[in-house]
Design a protein that fits this description.
By secondary structure, this protein is of the alpha+beta class. It is built from nine helices and twelve strands. It folds into two domains: 140 residues, Jelly Rolls; 71 residues, Winged helix-like DNA-binding domain superfamily/Winged helix DNA-binding domain (Arc Repressor Mutant, subunit A, Orthogonal Bundle). Helices cover 43% and strands 21% of the residues. The protein has a five-stranded antiparallel sheet with strand order 1-2-9-4-7. Helix 4 crosses helix 5, helix 6 runs antiparallel to helix 9 and helix 7 crosses helix 8. Bound molecules: zinc ion. Zinc ion binds next to helix 6.
Length: 230
């Protein structure tokens, strides 16, 4: 079942090959609204995937993904810089319709679950022009997000950026954020010690409580107040 995929972690689980239910597809805001032909293709050929916080994934097959829960950090082709965060409702992989999958790394910041479906099936169902339109829209959103992230990186200190990232994980996972400071540091492109100092400051401020492999959110208002808000 994992023949077309190359994941490094044994904890990645894939659904059985009996298709996906409408109930599952309806859990994603984009899949819910897509035309019937695309939903049919995804129901037939799609797979439900899951991984644990801290897992590294290297997807090498041309698939489009629809995030249901958790958060994945996507890295550039060299695997060094985080270029996007994929939270619930996000999609990824549209570019694989036009270029081979780059093998770029994704790091799970939280336990995550998503549906992925071969891009070939979407092209057959909807046509190349439709895919080009979706890809262009997706690329535009991504460029705007990258610009905002670079500005954040340039002007906001690590403490405020760390609070902001933890706030985003809270929005995806609720108050019990199962993640590691190492994963946060990788996603931010900073040293783990810098993240540790930031988290300790948040703890002193009564915003969070640090546990092994977890950050418990104690006061969302204080966390939001410490975050840069980008
Ligand atoms: Zn910022």
């Amino acid at each position: 079942m994992l023949d077309a995929l190359a994941f490094t972690s044994p904890s990645v689980a894939v659904s059985t090959a009996f298709g996906l239910t409408d109930e599952l597809l309806d859990r994603h805001p984009v899949l819910r609204l897509l035309p019937h032909a695309l939903r049919d293709s995804t129901r037939r050929e799609g797979r439900l995937c899951a991984c644990e916080s801290g897992d590294n994934l290297f997807a090498t097959s041309p698939v489009v993904g629809f995030m249901l829960s958790g958060t994945l950090a996507t890295f550039d082709d060299r695997g060094l810089a985080c270029v996007s965060l994929l939270g619930p409702g996000a999609t990824f992989g549209w570019e694989t319709a036009f270029a081979p999958a780059s093998g770029g790394r994704r790091l799970a910041l939280l336990d995550s679950c998503w549906i992925e479906t071969p891009v070939r099936g979407l092209r057959d169902a909807m046509g190349a022009a439709w895919l080009e339109h979706v890809f262009a829209r997706h690329a535009l959103d991504r460029i705007q997000r990258l610009q905002a992230d670079s500005a954040c990186h340039a002007v906001h200190p690590v403490t405020r950026r760390a609070a902001n990232l933890i706030r985003r994980l809270y929005q995806a996972a609720g108050p019990d954020v199962r993640t590691t400071q190492s994963a946060i540091a990788e996603a931010m492109g900073v040293q783990r010690t810098s993240v540790n100092a930031a988290v300790k400051a948040l703890e002193r401020a009564g915003a969070v409580s640090l546990r092994r492999g977890r950050i418990q959110i104690l006061c969302h208002e204080r966390l939001a107040g410490a975050a840069c808000g980008c």
